[in-house]
Amino acid sequence: IALNDYSKKAYQSALAKLYDISPSNDTNRFYSGLCHFSLGQLDQSISSLEKLSPQSIFYEQSIWYLGLAWYAKDDEELALQYLQTIKSGQFNFREASDLVNTLRQK
Fold this sequence. Notes:
Structural class: mainly alpha
Number of strands: 0
Order of helices and strands: HHHHHHH
Strand content: under 5%
Largest sheet: none
């Protein structure tokens, strides 16, 4: 139900349902992080996404969103730290590479 709300961009409603279910599993951490990101709640997004371990199925995607969140917070150094770890074949590699190149040119 929470993911239905997320797919409909009803992020606040999705967040409430995710926290009602269990905020401590990887699916909830990931989608909570995305909801917070979409709502502009960057600190909460970062907090949720940083709790995902490298063993999580959402880890590669979380690295991308962590890079974007730090970029949105105007912390280009931390954004680069995350974005540079995205390797060829991983989630949004091309977009990450483009953003890394843009940031390096500043």
